[in-house]
Write a structure and sequence with these properties.
- This protein is mostly helical.
- The protein folds into two domains: 1-36, no CATH class; 44-280, Rhomboid-like (Rhomboid-like fold), CATH 1.20.1540.
- Helices cover 64% and strands 2% of the residues.
- The protein is built from 13 helices and two strands, in the order ββααααααααααααα.
- The protein has helices spanning 39-45, 51-68, 71-79, 91-97, 103-106, 112-115, 123-144, 146-167, 176-193, 195-218, 225-240, 251-274, 276-280; strands at 7-9, 16-18.
- A two-stranded antiparallel ribbon has the order 1-2.
- Strand 1 and strand 2 form a beta hairpin.
- The longest helix is centred in the C-terminal third of the chain and has 24 residues, at 195-218.
- The protein is globular, with a radius of gyration of 21 Å.
């Protein structure tokens, strides 16, 4: 039963408040005395959770699954060996798991703007992007909070992939837009921080952004609209979101992150049901 009298610690900011408060006077958490988050949930998305590691683990797991589901594609990628295409999943499997663009959008799979962020096209592709996700994600989690990291990650990916699908009919996988969102948030944080620290952070993030956006151009690729969309989305969120040293994460941020996670899981299921039979030759 919920406590009805006395004082409690706000589950968001950990400050002492009366149990009858409808919202925390310190951090604004809604009905802090009504429901307590389970310890297991707090470990996943609470203030001490390592959500960047969860993102890396989820992407790695989906990449391994995409290889296991069609080992023949891996063999073909090694027979025609190229550093950038080695250990590549098949197109059919990527569509089945939630690749966005192309056939997925033609058949109404708009949920793929969520799921495609967790899929990758080769070993080099996934290694490169998970390295950046882990490195930048830890910084965003430290300065904004672990749940806000997830919100920035998901929103940037969705905005980037929606923009990409509006301007292109080609399929796409990868966390590029999400990573650009993290860069945008860190650029915004540097501007907000000010001083020598903020200036140094902005300088470093500007260089990394230029490398991340410019590297594909050296290999003949065009500038990815998904990356630009993610960068802008991350910069906007980084400009308006509270930072961790000013306001601890509220339930709103945590529940928003959980909603995105839930929708993504449902998206994987929807892709398997709707696109799987078509791509794999089933009924």
């Amino acid at each position: 039963m919920a406590q009805r009298e006395g004082s409690i610690l706000c589950p968001s900011c950990r400050k002492l408040i009366h149990v009858s408060e409808t919202s925390c006077p310190y951090c604004g958490a809604v009905a802090p005395g009504l429901v307590r988050a389970p310890r297991s949930l707090d470990a996943v998305i609470g203030p001490d959770a390592d959500t960047s590691a969860w993102l890396v683990g989820a992407c790695a797991a989906m990449y391994l699954l995409s290889l296991v589901l069609d080992p023949s594609a891996v063999i073909r990628s090694l027979q025609n060996f190229s550093l950038y295409t080695a250990f590549a999943p098949s197109t059919a499997i990527l569509y089945t798991l939630g690749m966005t663009g192309g056939i997925a959008i033609i058949f109404g799979g708009w949920w793929t703007v969520l799921t495609s962020s967790f899929l990758h096209a080769s070993l080099v592709h996934v290694a490169f992007e998970l390295m950046w996700t882990r490195s930048l994600g830890q910084m965003v989690s430290t300065w904004f909070g672990p749940a806000r990291l997830l919100v920035i990650w998901f929103v940037s990916g969705v905005v980037g992939h929606v923009l990409y699908n509006l301007l292109s009919d080609q399929p796409m996988v990868g966390s590029d837009a999400n990573i650009c969102g993290l860069l945008g948030a860190l650029l915004a944080f540097g501007r907000r921080a000010g001083g020598s620290f903020g200036a140094d952070l902005m300088k470093r993030m500007t260089v990394i952004t230029a490398i991340f956006l410019g590297l594909p151009l050296l290999f003949g690729a065009s500038l990815n609209t998904a990356d630009l969309g993610g960068l802008v989305a991350g910069a906007v969120l980084g400009s308006v979101m509270p930072v961790a040293d000013q306001a601890r994460e509220t339930r709103v941020a945590q529940l928003t992150a959980l909603v995105f996670i839930g929708l993504t899981v449902l998206g994987f299921v929807a892709s398997a049901i709707r696109l799987g039979p078509m791509m794999l030759g089933g009924p």
